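4.2 Preliminary Data

To establish feasibility before requesting continued support, the project team ran the inverse folding procedure on a target of 362 residues. The structure was first converted into the token representation described in Section 3, and no sequence information of any kind was made available to the design step. The complete token record follows.
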């Protein structure tokens, strides 16, 4: 089988040049006589990889000097607990913006540790839009505000950064990190599982403002304490060495394309192709409100569950795979992260037209 256009929400496509470079370096990395995955994380050759990876990420995202970059394990879901354990230790209050399933899970986890409250929710409209800035209700003495910037399952994103005053803003950016420039200084902490837009599964990146370190509750597991990881350069224990190496190759690729401004233009062009098609026909319906449309995860339905099923299976036979929507929402979802080429979206739109023509609705 040839390589397919993989619309999976995660783990998802990686740039072909990254995979080729990793393949070329697989057996013998830069004359070390071994693969990166066989190396001691304390060896000079590996230290160079992780040091460069951090420097490249700082360059790509223009991370200010008063932020630490941590390369961790456990997935974004572990951060649902790490965030309250590390930060919910002043008033014991935290406000959660509920915009989808992941932010709701994070909220539920935080409730185990203290007074977590919903700052707003769009559950009543099945998360088809993110809460508006006007609807957000924050407590001035909260230890932090938590949000999910791009809602992978529902296909929505925030087009504004909530104004939280002096309360640190924590953002789950798992499915949008590196898709466009972000002003890191507006956030106290950003976290992202790497398997959507950065690397393979197994790596979670945390970008945290230094003044938020060292506030963890006494019972915080050592492994989840950001300060432990910051003080040890993410090497308190063995970091996910190979995933960090792949992330480094991805950061190099983004820089070679011209950085995040360019990445954003490419992503906007891809998303526009799909949304413009959706807006110009009436066979498929895009359930998300226009003002909240995600640039990374595009959801649509035919309105007929059997047709949706047929769509996903026939598309797969044409090399357009993983278009089935999340089990909790149904329909279709095309995840078009950085590594999805424009040609992949063109092929998808061509398929959608064919499918609509061949499967008239009764
Ligand atoms: C995928 C995803 C998660 C869960 O990530 P894991 O690494 O599987 O724990 C959390 N938040 C968002 C926004 C995601 O897209």
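Position-by-position output of the design step:
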């Amino acid at each position: 089988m040839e390589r397919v256009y993989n619309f999976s929400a995660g783990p998802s496509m990686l740039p072909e040049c990254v995979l080729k470079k990793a393949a070329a370096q697989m057996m013998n990395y830069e004359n070390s006589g071994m693969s990166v995955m066989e190396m001691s994380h304390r060896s000079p050759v590996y230290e160079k990889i992780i040091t460069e990876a951090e420097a490249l990420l700082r360059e790509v995202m223009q991370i200010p000097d008063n932020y630490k970059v941590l390369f961790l394990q456990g997935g974004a879901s572990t951060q649902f607990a790490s965030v309250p354990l590390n930060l919910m230790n002043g008033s014991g209050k935290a406000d959660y913006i509920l915009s989808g399933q992941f932010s709701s899970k994070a909220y539920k986890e935080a409730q185990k540790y203290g007074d977590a409250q919903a700052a707003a929710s769009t559950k009543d409209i099945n998360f088809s839009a993110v809460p508006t800035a006007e609807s957000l209700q924050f407590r001035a003495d909260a230890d932090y505000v938590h949000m999910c910037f791009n809602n992978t399952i529902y296909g929505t994103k925030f087009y504004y950064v909530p104004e939280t005053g002096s309360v640190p803003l924590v953002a789950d950016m798992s499915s949008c990190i590196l898709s466009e420039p972000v002003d890191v200084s507006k956030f106290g902490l950003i976290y992202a599982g790497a398997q959507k837009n950065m690397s393979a599964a197994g790596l979670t990146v945390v970008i945290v403002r230094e003044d938020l370190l060292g506030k963890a509750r006494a019972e915080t597991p050592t492994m989840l304490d950001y300060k432990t990881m910051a003080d040890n350069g993410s090497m308190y224990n063995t970091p996910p060495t190979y995933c960090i190496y792949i992330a480094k190759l991805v950061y190099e690729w983004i820089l070679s394309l011209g950085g995040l401004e360019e990445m954003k233009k490419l992503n906007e062009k891809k998303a526009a192709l799909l949304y413009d098609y959706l807006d110009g026909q009436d066979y498929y319906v895009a359930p998300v409100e226009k003002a909240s449309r995600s640039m990374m995860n595009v959801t649509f339905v035919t309105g007929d569950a059997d047709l949706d099923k047929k769509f996903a299976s026939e598309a797969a036979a044409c090399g357009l795979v993983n278009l089935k929507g999340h089990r909790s929402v149904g329909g279709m979802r095309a995840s078009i992260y950085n590594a999805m080429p424009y040609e992949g979206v063109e092929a998808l739109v061509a398929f959608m037209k064919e499918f609509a023509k061949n499967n008239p609705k009764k």
